[in-house]
Every structure is written in structure tokens, then in C-alpha cells.
Write a structure and sequence with these properties.
Lysozyme-like; 2 domains; alpha/beta; 264 residues; 6-stranded mixed sheet; two-stranded antiparallel sheet
């Protein structure tokens, strides 16, 4: 059993692999895209099939839901290799000073418990502090999690963790470059028409929708099935604060949302 003494224990949850950690490569930063209470309730609901080791509210102390020797259900292929922390907030938010302190305290504890390196990494095969989106499709395709604003705060987390451990502060490093927002809209409206539209722009859009978790064929044909997925995506986007016309047409707004809208 491995529970951080300074964290409030809020378990149990059924959403985990008991004793499932095969190694501890580092700490994955997430953004809840919601509230602390809502996220805790969601992670304790067996039907969600989701969880995280730690929850980090905007104010107050760290809260632990899953023992760090158990694998949480949070990064798919990364579940058995990384410790996860879900930070309260929405896509695009920065961490509060309290959240930075909690992340640093956790990283320092993980260093002592498992030898996790106090460093940043963007490599799923590396070690240290990484963003959820860096795991790519293998980690669920959450490319916008936790967001560039949070990733830019990693030097603060590392410096504070080094201070807690009594180690020399790491040499300053440049902030990570913003992640590409995706290809520009190609100037072509993807819609159902006769003859059926079939080209590389359709395939590019379908591929990214597939990578983000939508059940869509990547065949380059824009027919009723693709339009139905498009309308579902537009409705979901509008319901989560990124309003789109629910018309089944991939125009400039829907194209941009495909790459830039946080995943709900």
C-alpha cells in the first residue's frame, strides 16, 4: 500500500487495476475540465470506467483516490506506468499557487517513494513530469490536456520540488513551444452532396476525429455516416461551451474545433 501521508484519502473506487503498476515513470498532469466535486463523483462511478490517483482542487490540500501501487484508469496505455494528478479547472486554465504547491509536494514524495526524476519530459518512454496530451492516441488522444498554460508552469513545480527535497534548483529551460493547433481549414466545406465528396481533406478530418475517440471510418468519403458523426460532435461541443452550428457540415468553425476544442 502506498498512500501519500500529506494527502486526504478519498477512496475507494472500483475503477482501478489492483497492484497494477509495473513501474513508476513519472507524474502525468491532467486538467479535470470541470469541478473537483464533479470529478470525484465521476471517478467513483463504475460506469465511467475512469479514475486518477490524485485530485488537486484550486484551493486546499491534495486528495488521493487511488493507491499509487494500483493502476488508475486515466491514460490507457500509460495506466500501468505513470502516476496521475487531475487538476481542477477548465481547458486553458493555469494552475493556482495552491495547485502548484500540491504538485510539487507530490513530485517530491514520488521521488522519495519511487525515485521519480524531478525533471520535465514530453516523451511517454521518458521519466519525470509529463502532460496527458504527450501520450498521443495511445493515451486516449487527449491532445489538449492539460493545456499549454499548465505545461508552462512545470518549471515552477520542479523548482519547488527541488526546494522541498533540499536539492539544487534545476537550470532554467525555455517554456515548451505551443502545440500545433492543427492544419488550417482547407477552404472546402465537407458536406453531403452528389456526387459524394471524396478527397484528402475529408480523410484528414476523419483521421483526427478517429484519433480523438469518435467511431468514424477513415476512408475519405463524406457521406451520411460522416455527417452524423459531425452533428454529434457539434452538439457535444456546444454542450461543453464551444458553440457550433449543428448542421453536419465541416466548415471553418467545426474544422478548428476538431483540433482545438478540449475533449469532454
Amino acid at each position: 500500500m502506498a498512500r501519500m501521508p500529506a494527502a486526504q484519502w478519498i477512496g475507494p473506487t472500483a475503477n482501478l487495476y489492483p497492484g497494477g503498476m509495473v513501474e513508476h515513470r513519472g507524474l502525468v498532469l491532467h486538467i479535470q475540465d470541470g469541478t473537483e466535486a464533479g470529478s470525484e463523483s465521476w471517478f467513483k462511478d463504475p460506469s465511467s470506467e475512469a479514475s486518477a490517483h490524485f485530485l488537486n482542487p484550486k484551493s486546499g490540500g491534495l486528495r488521493q483516490l487511488v493507491d499509487t501501487d494500483d493502476a488508475a484508469w486515466t491514460e490507457m496505455a500509460g495506466n500501468r506506468h505513470w502516476v496521475s494528478i487531475e487538476n481542477e479547472g477548465l481547458g486553458g486554465d493555469s494552475l493556482t499557487p495552491s495547485q502548484i504547491e500540491n504538485c510539487a509536494q507530490l513530485l517530491a514524495w514520488l521521488h522519495g517513494e519511487y525515485g521519480i526524476q524531478v525533471q520535465a519530459t514530453d516523451d511517454p518512454a521518458g521519466t519525470g513530469v509529463i502532460g496527458h496530451g504527450d501520450g498521443g492516441a495511445a493515451w486516449g488522444g487527449h491532445y489538449d490536456c492539460p493545456g499549454d498554460a499548465v505545461l508552462a508552469q512545470r518549471p515552477q513545480i520542479l523548482a519547488r520540488a527541488q526546494q522541498i527535497l533540499g536539492q539544487p534548483a534545476p537550470a532554467p529551460s525555455p517554456s515548451p513551444a505551443p502545440k500545433p493547433a492543427g492544419p488550417a481549414w482547407p477552404g472546402e466545406y465537407l458536406r453531403v452532396q452528389a456526387p459524394m465528396l471524396h478527397d484528402g481533406n475529408v480523410q484528414t478530418w476523419q483521421q483526427h476525429m478517429h484519433d480523438r475517440g469518435w467511431n468514424i471510418a477513415v476512408d475519405g468519403w463524406y457521406g451520411p455516416a460522416s455527417a452524423n458523426i459531425c452533428r454529434r460532435f457539434q452538439a457535444d461541443s456546444s454542450a461543453h461551451g464551444w458553440p457550433l452550428d449543428n448542421d453536419g457540415v465541416v466548415g471553418p468553425a467545426t474544422w478548428a474545433a476538431t483540433w482545438n476544442r478540449p475533449i469532454s
